[in-house]
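Q: Convert this sequence to structure tokens.
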Amino acid sequence: MSSEPAADVTTLLLQWNKGKPSALDDLMPLVYAELQRIARRCWRSENPGHTLEPTALVHEAFIRLVDNDRVNWRNRAQFFGVAAQVVRRILVDHARARHRAKRGGHAVRVTWSENLLAPGRPGPADLDLESLDRALKQLEQMDPQQSSIVELRFFGGLSVEETAEALKISSATVKRDWAVARAWLRREMSRE
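A:
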């Protein structure tokens, strides 16, 4: 994640929870660069004509996060975990809209993060966001924890330790479930 101290982000999130309006103004620059990095990583497209650029993705995600008054922010890891879910929803919604607009045209494709590649596998593989979303929904039915780990690590860019903190589980469990979930997703998506 970024070099900003987690304590500063956590402090500002807690102040924002308590209704301090200036906390959001102070929080935005601290999380903007990290959201931008997440968006760029998630949106590596082979499709030069796409209309949703990383900056637009960040803005949309930030608007949804700010408008979400149902979340009781606890810390930086939780914030970026929710941000990962929001980014995923935006990307999948955009892919579906483009797919519908083209009446069966190609789904939006992005490149797998190095974190999701099989060890020793040469080069990135194309990823169909709609296919990933379907597979993640299946995984969530079978193992909600593994699904959450994939969402936090892939879409949120959280480290093993930050994911463990957000889910209140051990780092060893995150590593084990991350490996199992990656293998399962590769298998399921290769079937499509």
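The beta strands are 109-111, 126-128.
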